């Protein structure tokens, strides 16, 4: 298993279109060692679907980033609310956080939110008219999930745009100083928001969340970290989910037309859209605590392990014609866009509801929508973790 000479996940061609690189890496070996950054460091990249499912559930792969980096030199300065949350912990700490987070996104709670999500979509698209241009990312895909999650956290409307910008900056792979500064803005803001709510008991959405945290055994700092995770994870990935789905449908007009004619098929189509162009390209940090084998491939202890849902969802061993968008695909639900195992995204039902309502509004109100710019001019976020467009200019019709 020969490692590439350079990090294949930082190549400009990968950031524009990761799938050819994923195919090459997977064909050579579905679990392989790759260089990461500079200084001779390496990680193990998992690109096969079966191997990714196995890795997601292996308890020897830890998400405790604090333990991994303890004692290692670092010039990073992330706020603890961002660096020490449910995504960066193992059981039993993870179990306590998960016990509080999961009930926030039950079928019943998401159903109760649907009228609010619908009103947000209607408000955001109220000024849209045929034969005009909009940026689907800036005008809908970003503000929709931000508005919803900020409503859940009780964030005042006047603060939402600034908080969304900081959340966006957290995924800026090109500037660690900017990432660290964004983490501190989010951490300080949410700490003040939580402290204000604790000092002034009430019946708002944040008060309800804090009561859930107290009943679940989370202290004040853990409540802040949960709020930060809900903000960041609930916004960035859903934004990319919506943008990637619309672009995929525009690239496949027969699928676009099919959903336009029968919008009740949209909920079922979401799984194939998630599989086809996953908003999470590489899952968050894990490392091997012991020597282990994934799919028959050895990984020594002490190395970062990168599980790539974006690659796994295009694995020909799992999906026939994986590079084809097929709304009739029977096995689309086995995609790994939301992860797998105990760390599977608890907010998946909310993300699906937001994407469904946004797509339904676009397809039914503007059935002739098309790209307003040449496809080759579209640009993608410069981060290997998530996959999403910087903008999606559309001409409404």
Automatic annotation (TrEMBL):
Alphabetical UniProt keywords = Heme, Iron, Metal-binding, Monooxygenase, Oxidoreductase
- Any idea which GO molecular function terms this record carries? heme binding; iron ion binding; monooxygenase activity; oxidoreductase activity, acting on paired donors, with incorporation or reduction of molecular oxygen
Its domain of life? Bacteria
Q: Which family does it belong to?
A: Belongs to the cytochrome P450 family.
Task: Name it.
Answer: Cytochrome P450
